[in-house]
């Protein structure tokens, strides 16, 4: 096992397109890092560069401290699991798993031993003599992983291995992958476009957009303290609601009501424009009737007509319309909408989603009162997409934040990757 | 789709007519080959007296046995070389992006549909001057020239069906490009190679134009051309019986090949049948 360091790695294609732009990321030994982002963000390209299947245009890649830019995949001691599994159709499962060892001229006895061990750990012992065409999707996926395990590589690279499986199987295999990584203590780099997979599997998640690293941090950190608009909108399902806001002296005016602005935040704002974008997650709304007395003063109550109510048993989602202002024209939000399919579906950007406690009495069509937790609001600068509340919060409590990841300001922050697997639950410090 | 009895009868009739039209000439030749010389002019379809004499005659005579041997040898060598080089070329065509690739593929197609007859005279002169006339290489080389493009075409279609990811997987597993080709790709393309080998061999076996123009003696002449040189009992008799027997002998391998490999040949001509 070894650690991997991407140092200002860039991939430029002959026609000039920049697929990956100065990416710097540290992956510690034994860490499970996820690369996530919309299609075309450069995550697969990064993975291919790690594997040695694509050349690195600029920058350095170090594995175990040694520069490996020019080394072949074989010499990097890396195993890869492909999205389409890429199992050799003319070989049996046993031969598939033993292929790399055979190429390395390992003695037959050793090959047999390793293949049997890997097969046993993955539950494939009965399938060893079958050909891939006679296996189900889940079995093929396990064979692909077995092929990687057998090599005992320094690191595993996985390129969307679960996207070809149906939903239920995907959830099951997600657990298997997680357990496998813990059992082997393996360094794993995993690429996915599904943010749920990213959040559930990773020790750390790196969000990419347009070849640029947006933020790399533990899932909880990404969720609670997204550094910019893109990360805020990408992480979390259903995604964050965004609306326009204006700051006027010490008050923030939004479609939901007026809020006071904290001193630290006002300081951040003085360097940014008066127009801001306010973000609030669906889970930060509540039925006022169910809000406790000490929590109520920290939020704002407003009226809204409920268009749709979705009851999921453990929670209820309500959809209502508000004039959300000029959020349509911000590029990050446009890109997020396109990625989520909202741009084509005709869903307007005026719809707000709120998650309510299932005990609520609110029903569809009501002109109901809703409460929004102002402590959980995020304020963004529309020009740069920067999260001003996080910046303010970091400044205000810089002294007191113990063990926080080295997250700085700026829309494209290279995280120098202090891999913290346990994140202190940072209290939302946006007020 | 339920077919009424009338439709079935109609299709049955059409099939019979087609079969008869195709089969009659073949059966006629076969029947001629079993007739005694005296009965050749006999208008009856089936011989009154069946004889193996014609077959015995040609198979003991070096004017036919040697050309048969030539056909087999030249066919196999030309096929082997053509398929080996074609698979390498087809692999490059299917996998690499290189300037002029389209030109190469178009060029291959052009060569295979080129009218061979226009090349006979120049080839004759060339081969005479470099001493390849009436030799095995003298026929093998033109056969490769015409068989190769056809093989490249068929094999490129097969290679394209093989997923690109397999080579990447092999690379990550530690294979050199040559190992990836021989251990992973070639086995998968084997059906394609068999198909193109069959088609190239059939082309070489049936080929008449070059065989008759570029050879002068039985040392290099192939079987179809040898038929033209059969001599009868006298200057005025056409040895119909032996010719018919020779024709049957030449046709039999092809018939066997096609009936055994018919599915392969059709799929080879239409697309690639490789499952990724």
Write the layout of secondary structure elements.
The complex is a heterodimer of chains A (431) and B (276).
Chain A: E1 4-12, E2 18-27, E3 32-36, H1 43-51, E4 58-63, E5 66-67, H2 73-76, E6 78-81, H3 93-103, H4 108-122, H5 137-149, E7 155-159, H6 167-184, E8 187-192, H7 195-201, E9 204-209, E10 212-217, H8 219-224, H9 229-234, E11 241-248, E12 251-254, E13 257-260, H10 263-270, E14 275-280, E15 285-286, E16 299-311, E17 316-321, H11 331-340, H12 342-345, E18 351-356, E19 367-373, E20 378-380, H13 388-396
Parallel strand pairs in A: 3-8, 3-9, 6-7, 7-8
Antiparallel strand pairs in A: 1-2, 1-4, 4-5, 9-10, 11-12, 11-14, 12-13, 14-20, 15-19, 16-17, 16-19, 17-18
Helix pairs in contact in A: 3-4, 3-5, 4-5, 10-13
Chain B: H1 5-33, H2 53-60, H3 62-95, H4 101-112, H5 117-130, H6 136-161, H7 165-173, H8 177-206, H9 209-213, H10 223-227, H11 240-270
Helix pairs in contact in B: 1-11, 2-11, 3-6, 3-8, 4-6, 6-8, 7-8, 8-11
Structural class of the secondary structure composition of chain A? alpha+beta
Number of helices of chain A: 13
Write down the CATH class of the domain at 71-218 and 249-270 in chain B: Mainly Alpha
Order of helices and strands of chain B: HHHHHHHHHHH
Largest sheet of chain A: 6 strands, mixed
Number of helices of chain B: 11
Number of strands of chain B: 0
Shape of chain B: globular
Largest protein interface, residues of each chain: A-B, 23 and 18 residues
What strand order characterises the main sheet of chain A?
Answer: 6-7-8-3-9-10
Query: How much beta of chain A, percentage-wise?
Result: 25-35%
- Between the first and last Cα atoms of chain A, what is the distance in angstroms? 44 Å
CATH superfamily of the domain at 71-218 and 249-270 in chain B: MetI-like
CATH topology of the largest domain in chain A: Rossmann fold
Largest sheet of chain B: none
Structural class of chain B: mainly alpha
Distance between the termini of chain B: 32 Å
In which range does the helix fraction of chain A lie? 25-40%
